[in-house]
């Protein structure tokens, strides 16, 4: 039995066989061959095997993920069966007497290069399809398995170096019981996705992929951040009990689903949910969310081959607004960059992606992308209570520029005869220290703030949120962070505006009492944290939390704050 320690990223216990998601080794040597005809046959066999495999994946994807996700595999099938690609490969085998692997790779690389250099965006995207298909055919030639999580058909725990947000979004909840990764932190987006999918997860174990083999029995303890490999039957039994207790606790919280979030002394706060797709709404409603406090729209742009159209976006935003039946929905405009990539945008690699060309910086530059999103949002605004916020605002000029573009699009729509809601609140994420420090000035111009502590903490502490070696610096209760949060809330209130928080800190048991004391108006978190937070807030006295807050703001260290909160709330 082996034990790994990591970061508890998503609550719950999962016990199942390991399924390793690792990059296959597709290396080979270029060889001269004697029998080109046999080699061509070998190549054709690999093509056929790839074809059968792709058809299976496409059919499964259609059922499990919908026709738009399945379209990716349809495109792969087209490439695979294109004589313009396969013909030159066969010719090369015959004319140069080289093995199929080398003929395939060299020909495909040439096409990839050619497509990548084309002006037409659609053609450039075909380069990615050719790369994927080449990988698949190579894997059959070399007899190496390439794993595809959407093909999983038994209960498993995924073991990976890292999972991208789109890998996570594609996981089939029916079979994927949990996951564990070598890298990542509590606020990496794969962890955030795991919470909204309610998949127990432990990230940042450093060595999961080295220690765990396919088929090993694994326990993922997402409550404590532990992973047990090939546990004893006694330990499995113990964990089954813990899992039952956790489920019983959840059933207790579930009784609060239709209750208001009111402190013991009668102060109401709003408990909202963070969502990534319209599908997450079910969880928001099941967990008694009073609003959507953060709709991370970038997930609409991921796991696909090109930008979503205005119409696709309009449908998604409308679905969320209608689904919330008039309750507030705060939609954040595109926040791409950092750990969220869009391969089809082909942005150059950066030394420091979290400090780079991302979010509003990209939108103000690539205005076509931004304007399409704003138009879709404005058109959807008549279907509910829409509020729009801009991510990663560092200066007032950025906010003013973004607001002016929004206003221009609104006027254009109105002149086209389209309907737009009269009043749409416009806010910003406060996730950059400069903005928190200047919050009093921002508060004069914005309608609300939403504090994004995942980034605010990484930027204040200068500690990459993806790097588990510096994860000890993710310190939401540090007096430094608490003071910044206070500045933002006070600045909003001084101008009669509201302040919310949509970073993971908003759902944190130790932070909640302090945030209540600081006067935070809206707490937005993973839907699965809402009922637990409601149960906690209903037991707290706001007046007492204000006194506690006064004390902790003047403390020196995080551990002092934790102790003070525990003493005040037990
Ligand atoms: C944040 O930074 O706190 C936030 C909510 O945004 P994201 O996690 O998507 O960067
Ligand atoms: Mg952020």
Automatic annotation (TrEMBL):
Keyword Lipoprotein (UniProt): no
EC number(s) given by UniProt: 2.7.3.9
CC per GO annotation: cytoplasm
Transmembrane segments annotated in the record for this chain: none
Occurrences of domain PEP-utilising enzyme C-terminal (ranges): 250-541
Sorted UniProt keywords: Cytoplasm, Kinase, Magnesium, Metal-binding, Phosphotransferase system, Pyruvate, Sugar transport, Transferase, Transport
Keyword S-adenosyl-L-methionine belongs to the record: no
Pfam name, any one: PEP-utilizers_C
Catalytic machinery residues: 189 (tele-phosphohistidine intermediate), 502 (proton donor)
Domain Phosphotransferase system enzyme I N-terminal, first and last residues per copy: 5-126
Gene Ontology process terms (BP): phosphoenolpyruvate-dependent sugar phosphotransferase system
Domain PEP-utilising enzyme mobile span(s) in chain numbering: 153-225
Binding site for Mg(2+): 431, 455
GO MF annotations, alphabetized: kinase activity; metal ion binding; phosphoenolpyruvate-protein phosphotransferase activity
Catalytic activity: L-histidyl-[protein] + phosphoenolpyruvate = N(pros)-phospho-L-histidyl-[protein] + pyruvate
Gene3D superfamilies: Phosphoenolpyruvate-binding domains, Phosphohistidine domain, PtsI, HPr-binding domain
Cofactor: Mg(2+)
Cellular location(s): Cytoplasm
Ligand binding (phosphoenolpyruvate): 296, 332, 454-455, 465
Function: General (non sugar-specific) component of the phosphoenolpyruvate-dependent sugar phosphotransferase system (sugar PTS). This major carbohydrate active-transport system catalyzes the phosphorylation of incoming sugar substrates concomitantly with their translocation across the cell membrane. Enzyme I transfers the phosphoryl group from phosphoenolpyruvate (PEP) to the phosphoryl carrier protein (HPr).
Family: Belongs to the PEP-utilizing enzyme family.
Protein name in UniProt: Phosphoenolpyruvate-protein phosphotransferase
Species this chain originates from: Neobacillus massiliamazoniensis
